[in-house]
Amino acid sequence: MNDYGHFDKFYIAKSKYGIGVFAARPIKRGERIMVFKGPSITWKEAQMPEHRNHFFQIGVDKYQGKMPSRRRPVNHSCNPNAGIIGRMTLVAVRNIRIDEEITFDYSTSMYNDPSRMKCRCGAKICRHVIREFKYLPKQTKQNYIKLGIVPKWLLKALSEEADSRIPKRYRKFWYKFKTNSVLYHITPRANLKNIMKKGLEPRDPAPRNWRGMHAVFMGYPRSSEYKPALKNVLAHAKKKSEDVVRLHIRTKQQLYRSSNPSRTFQVMSLDYVPARCIIKIEDILG
Questions:
Q1: How far apart are CA 187 and CA 86, in angstroms?
Q2: What is the pLDDT of residues 226-237, one digit of tens each?
Q3: C-alpha dihedral, 270 to 253 to 182 to 273, nearest 10°
Q4: What does the pLDDT read at residue 28?
Q5: Domain map of the chain by residue range?
Q6: What is the mean pLDDT of the chain?
């Protein structure tokens, strides 16, 4: 093995990726390995030859440029033994054996990045492509967040990204919400065949409710507002002589709960609700 440098906790040598960083001695979980340092640059600057392929994202439009050679070759793995915390400090997320290659998951520092890199890490859980954090499997994201190796700026950006789909004039009326309870969605029977085939698509509802916002609106039967709201919906359907059904829905998706009790709907999903989430169809008017 050709040695490209040897330091206190690690050394640089040839790896299956070309060059990599290896443990010079056993490293315990939680132990700091190195600190990445470099100039602060923009995305445009990051595409320049001197920085290309040698930068890290440290903010929504903020990057850390080319670093000293001994800190550059830390390779990616879909099953990493290290991660970045705080101000670009690489720490062990499990015990690392002597001569084991040190890796971290590049996706934990990627946001609004159009690039897609092929992954050759060889891990049993290899995703085969390296892309933004938001595209990681749900369990993987939760594990990384629990380990504390997802930067706060990235979590904040993802939270604001979800909220940005709600027009500013309505954001004060909705807050993030999750429930295991059954939710109700009332729809004309004429729509049922298409819904059971394609699921519920976010769409622009009646202007008098939330004009300009695309969402799947649902009733939350555990709320005190549900019964009076249902009464109003059924009265409206009867007035139009519509044959309507009530869909019983159970979903683990991110939902939003209304903070305004006068609204017709108590809960909404900004995402497509698959047909498999519909667990029962109930005749209520017709």
A1: 49
A2: 888 888 888 877
A3: 60
A4: 96
A5: 3-161, 167-285
A6: 85
